[in-house]
Design a protein that fits this description.
8 helices, about 5% strand, 2 strands, two-stranded antiparallel sheet, mainly alpha, globular, single chain, about 190 residues
């Protein structure tokens, strides 16, 4: 998931945090393609006729990131983790608005096969978000790990870095989270 050297992105993020003019303008072209990949990953799990386009999702997430005045950027992985979290919120908000507008209509569907290997079939995006929120109340760190991996497309190593835990701990947390989510989502 590296299209530009991590050091350049991290350096620009730190300069942006420090208020250096021009850092944001230099940063956007370096992260744009990677943000599009993350957005595509999110949208691939949506229903086929989803009205939110990848470019719109990227731009909305980036605008929300720019508005984050209190964030002290730590690294490239930190930036993309927060970007993914923003995309998740945008998609959930979009699904809620759609659901409110069309009570009883088909809900937004998410295919979990790729991210949570043991869970098969389609899942309502809002339902998945609610299940993940319940899990996050029980296991905040593991819930965040699921968010980083599923929504952010981060590897175990990248997610471990963001969470400041060992890779071995991240792998254990991932295994437990997958099992719990599978049980909750399939009822078995």
């Amino acid at each position: 998931m590296t299209t530009a050297p991590s050091q350049n992105i991290t350096r620009l993020l730190l300069e942006w945090s420090d208020g250096k003019s021009g850092a944001l303008e230099s940063l956007f072209p370096l992260v744009y393609e990677e943000l599009r990949v993350i957005a595509q990953s999110h949208l691939r799990r949506e229903r086929s006729a989803h009205t939110l386009q990848r470019t719109a999702l990227v731009h909305e997430a980036f605008l929300r990131l720019v508005d984050q005045k209190s964030v002290t950027w730590q690294s490239r992985a930190h930036f993309f983790a927060l970007a993914s979290q923003m995309m998740r919120r945008i998609l959930v908000d979009h699904a809620r608005r759609r659901s409110t507008a069309k009570r009883g209509a088909d809900a937004v569907r998410v295919d979990l096969d790729g991210a949570l290997e043991e869970v098969s079939g389609d899942l309502d995006f809002e339902e998945f978000d609610q299940v993940l929120q319940r899990y996050e109340t029980l296991e905040p760190r593991s819930g965040r790990l699921v968010e980083l991996r599923f929504f952010g497309g981060l590897s175990i190593e990248e997610a471990a870095s963001v969470l400041e835990i060992s890779v071995a701990t991240a792998k254990r947390d991932w295994a437990v989270a997958r099992a719990w989510l599978q049980r909750e989502l399939t009822g078995s």
